[in-house]
Amino acid sequence: MTDLPTTVTASATSGPHAVRPFAVISGAQVQQVLEGREKQLVELAEAVYRLHGAGDSVNPPSYFLRFPDRPASRIIALPASIGGDVRVDGVKWISSFPENVRAGIPRASAVLILNDQDTGYPFACLESSIISATRTAASAALAADRLSRDRPRPTRVGFVGTGLIARYIHTFLAGTGWSFDETGVHDLAADSAAGFRRYLEQSGTTGRITVHRSAEELIRSSDLVVFATVASEPHVGDPAWFSHNPVVLHVSLRDLAPEVVLASANIVDDVEHCLKADTSPHLAERLTGGRDFLQGTLDDVMAGRVTVPADRPVVFSPFGLGVLDLAVGKYVYDDMVRSGELHVIDGFFHELRRYG
């Protein structure tokens, strides 16, 4: 499908170039709109990938703000534009400050700005850590389905890294009809692994839940492997761990050594985006001097241009596209308009007459 959900917009005045009132949408409102809509959001992600594959988008490289005195921290800008029925421009501004975890607050925080395509004026600011996690999980659930259609459907899932993203991916898998006989958990932090296990038990997860002592143990006993770590360099280097040919959702992008990548069938969300910033596919390109190890994009798979082999591990490495953030953000905005709960900041734009 290429059509996106019908959208409803608000205008300050009538006319094709009216300036919309500026709205602020809180994290609580975002969560209220998105919760329980996993199937619709996976369909939205599929439609966005198709629009992006057809060229109806602009998705330039992400911009990294780094700090010499805080090398572990960064803030990233993801500008983008999406066409179709969404028709919105904008930017996600997302920070990653690992030291936050010690203070008991999440590592990442984010806002999303939506801009009108007719005037360029921003018309909404949304809390976006939930949007970011949602679009990541929707993309992962879509890939899990599409990449396993020509092989036995996975019955054992394993999560390497057990933070917010892992939780959202599990929620989206469950919300789109997946169930597993076994769920494996591995995290370098024992308390995180234990906390994720408690979450799984409380969420009604069926089948056996196992906390594994090592990544190798988890990988070898999983048909669907989810990497959702904060690894900055590869820590999994033996292709033999994947000899049973699992589907791998390599969401954190830097866990796999080039040797594992080269022994697998590789699918990405966008080739140019993924082969940069020392991701595992980027390291594989450096090692080989080429891109022959890539089979194509997820859109290629959905369109039938690429067939996923069943006799090799298949690795999905999504860099994360700003167009997905925009589509989910616009989905939230339109729902708030329909419900009449949009919080507009009166008079946010003061100078709206060219000559005063």
UniProtKB/TrEMBL annotation:
InterPro entries referenced in this protein's UniProt entry, alphabetically: NAD(P)-bd_dom_sf, ODC_Mu_crystall, ODC_N, SbnB
PANTHER family membership: KETIMINE REDUCTASE MU-CRYSTALLIN (PTHR13812)
Protein name as annotated: 2,3-diaminopropionate biosynthesis protein SbnB
Transmembrane segments annotated in the record for this chain: none
Gene3D superfamilies: NAD(P)-binding Rossmann-like Domain, ornithine cyclodeaminase, domain 1
Gene expressing this chain: sbnB
Pfam families according to UniProt: OCD_Mu_crystall (PF02423)
